[in-house]
Amino acid sequence: MGFDKTTNSNHYITKPLLDGKFIGRIMVSNAFGIGRKVVYFLVKKGAEFLADTDGILLDTIAFTAQKGGIYTTKDGESVAVIRSDFAHKEAYISAFFAALMYLQNTDYEFVDYKHYYQLKGDKGTSLKLNGKAFRPDGIWFMESLDPSAPRFVYVVEIHRHSERKHIIRQLRQQVEAIKAKSVQNRFGFEHPYLVLSIFTDENINAMQGILKELQQSDDWAIMQKYFLFARLSDILADCYNGLGYFGGNKKPFPSIII
User: Fold this and answer.
1) Of the candidates 85, 49, 53, which has an alpha carbon nearest to the alpha carbon of residue 68?
2) With a threshold of 0.90, does the pTM exceed it?
3) What is the per-residue pLDDT across 22-77, written as a single tens digit (0 to 9) for each?
4) Do residues 91 and 200 make contact, with C-beta atoms less than 8 angstroms apart?
5) How far apart are the first and last CA of the chain?
6) Is the CB of residue 39 less than 8 Å from the CB of residue 28?
7) Residue 181 gets which letter from DSSP?
8) When comparing pLDDT for 197 and 23, which is higher?
9) Which pLDDT value is given to residue 191?
10) What percent of the chain stands above pLDDT 70?
11) Which end of the chain, N or C, is surrounded by fewer C-beta atoms within 10 Å?
């Protein structure tokens, strides 16, 4: 297979294995959804090669039932497996359905939405900032039955962990994305969009401290106007009143029709 020469390059080893369909390769998003890692896995053809070469039983080799080679979408882009953190996924889905059920009492509806967890080959929630891609948990598009009413677009972030530095970095990244019009550039609209920052009960103390810190920063001028903050349990109980907004009494969110 051409392994008679030594080299320090991992690609030198993996390329012939991938080309020969002895192994498979897929991208896996990291724990916080920023960046990706390469994962290789052994398939049946590779296991059979090992069994024949080393004279061992095929049944003693662990391999997957997947095909070998590089997994790509129909557009030729590398397929990525997205995070499998069930608790995080459950929190996001709960928030989405809370909003979906709430909208039934308004004259607004979802006209589109992108989820971090979807795998459709259409880039999902991927946004560009300073030439690099990042992936929020969701992007929701809401429009009213009244054509003259404002359109709402929300970038949704779920915070389950209590890592202060990461959450602050994540929220400040959203500030820079607003300045750069990352969502408008991706989806082709002009009006402003908002960020919906949702945290779970286990990190409420961390979020309270984070909000106090952010209120003292230069980023707060944008956050105050374009960010909504909420505890997950609050919006599950009462979606509209569970949303915290620091930019005035009128929240930039559909209101119930009385």
Assistant:
1) 49
2) no
3) 888 776 555 444 455 677 778 888 888 888 888 888 877 877 767 777 766 666 66
4) yes
5) 73
6) yes
7) T
8) 197
9) 94
10) 82
11) C
Could you tell me the two tokens for 201?
A: 């009960």
Residue pair 202/160 in contact by the 8 Å Cβ criterion: yes
Give the pair of three-digit tokens for residue 239: 């979606």
The two tokens of residue 224 are 């105050």
Between CA 48 and CA 10 the distance in angstroms is 22
| Contact criterion met (CB below 8 Å) for 135 and 33 | yes
H or E element that contains 199: strand 194-199
Amino acid, res. 100: L
Tokens at 131, concatenated:
């030439």
145: which 2 tokens? 């039955």
Q: Is-contact 40 24, C-beta < 8 A?
A: yes
Pairing between β-strand 36-42 and β-strand 69-70 as defined by DSSP bridges: unpaired
**Nearest in space to 150 (alpha carbons), one of 95, 189, 96:** 189
Residue 34 is predicted with a pLDDT of 45
pLDDT of residue 23: 86
Look at residue 50 in the predicted model and tell me its pLDDT: 85
In this prediction, residue 86 carries a pLDDT of 66
Tokens of 119: 């795998």
Determine the pLDDT at residue 37: 64
Choose among 159, 243, 238: nearest CA to 201.
159
The domains of the chain, with CATH numbers, are 13-79 (no CATH), 85-245 (3.40.91)
More confident: 244 or 121: 244
157 exposed, middle or buried (CB, 10 Å; 0-12, 13-18, 19+)? buried
β-pairing verdict for 69-70 and 23-29: parallel
Cα distances from 107 to residues 96, 102, 130, in angstroms, run 17, 10, 37
